[in-house]
Amino acid sequence: MNRRDVLVAFAALGVTPAFAGVTREVIRIVVPFGAGGIADLTARAVAEALTARTGDTVIIDNRPGAGGVAAGEAVLRAAPDGRTLLLVNNGTAVSAGLFNHLPFDALRDFAPVSLIGTFDLAILVDAASPLKSLRDLVAAAKAKPGKLNIATVAVGSTQNLAAELFKSKEGIAAQVVPFNSTPAVVTALRGGQVDAAIEILGPVKSQVDAGAIRVLSTLAKYDISSWNGLAVPAKTPPAVVAKLNADVQAVLAMPEIKRKLAALDVEARSSTPAQLGALLASETRRWSEVIARAGIPKQ
Q1: What is the domain count for the chain?
Q2: With contact defined as beta carbons under 8 Å apart, do 90 and 287 qualify?
Q3: Which end of the chain has less neighbouring CB within 10 Å, N or C?
Q4: How confident is the model at residue 23 (pLDDT cuts 50, 70, 90)?
């Protein structure tokens, strides 16, 4: 018998059960990307698990927009009661160094709750490429400085800045060529327009599995990965943040959620609020330095 049947049965007897007056909260996770991407799918998996665990209704509110402005403003204006959460990510850290003026300071205006997942960026080549290893790629770039082309999505994206950081760490001169979408990057790679590409592994995994493109290395080798976490307005009471953190940690420990996220090439990973705060601060510093070194103009 489900909850509704129980209520109907009690009503027929003229009795009101103790749980009948319990009100479920509606909790929003505001995602700064459109539906269907890795961040969105990760947030939806976590939201579904939180709904089952807490009895509250956890929904996803997609607010795509440059710099995460629309999403950030929506959470900034929300009551600090734990009912509105922001999906923060390495893009949040990038935006701090990429934009001259944002309506919020992520480190000041939001209180971290927990990390929820990490996922790899990969260095890719076409299946027919003569570059068989990362060592081959670096050697080719050093043999002909400035001639090697590396495709990424848009200037200022995590992938684009990861390419700049890769160049810096390996001490190579290569051209980073931006495209407007992941499919365009893959098309250019397979068509021989570029020598290599850097992209989040999840969205291209089907192409890798099909043998159309090859992974030379993940950027974990360079301590570069993508991540998602959750935050709330800065004035949210610590007890509320602690409760949210406990719930998130509990659902991310569930084998079912680990499997669901692993299918997206995401490693379910929680943290303390302090750990997420330290990660956001360190990533903000690092990507701001990469942006300055690459000479990318602020927007």
Answers
A1: 2
A2: yes
A3: N
A4: low
User: How far is Cα 101 from Cα 184, in angstroms, rounded to an integer?
Assistant: 30
Q: Does residue 149 share a domain with residue 100?
A: no
- What is the β-pairing status of strands 84-89 and 26-31? parallel
Strand partners, 151: 177, 197
pLDDT tens digit sequence for 83-111: 999 999 999 999 998 898 899 999 999 99
pLDDT 10s digits, 58-81: 999 999 887 899 999 999 999 999
131 token code pair = 């570059």
Q: Are residues 160 and 257 in the same domain?
A: no
- Domain of 66 in residue numbering reads as 3-118+226-294
- Give the Cα separation of 53 and 295 in Å (integer): 47
Quick check: is 299 in a domain? Answer: no
> Taking Cα atoms as reference points, which of 30, 44, 13, 41 lies closest to residue 76?
30
| Residues 11 and 107 grouped into a single domain | yes
* DSSP class per residue in 20-84: GGPPPPEEEEEESS-TTSHHHHHHHHHHHHHHHHHSSEEEEEE---GGGHHHHHHHHTS-SSSSE
CATH number of 112's domain: 3.40.190.150
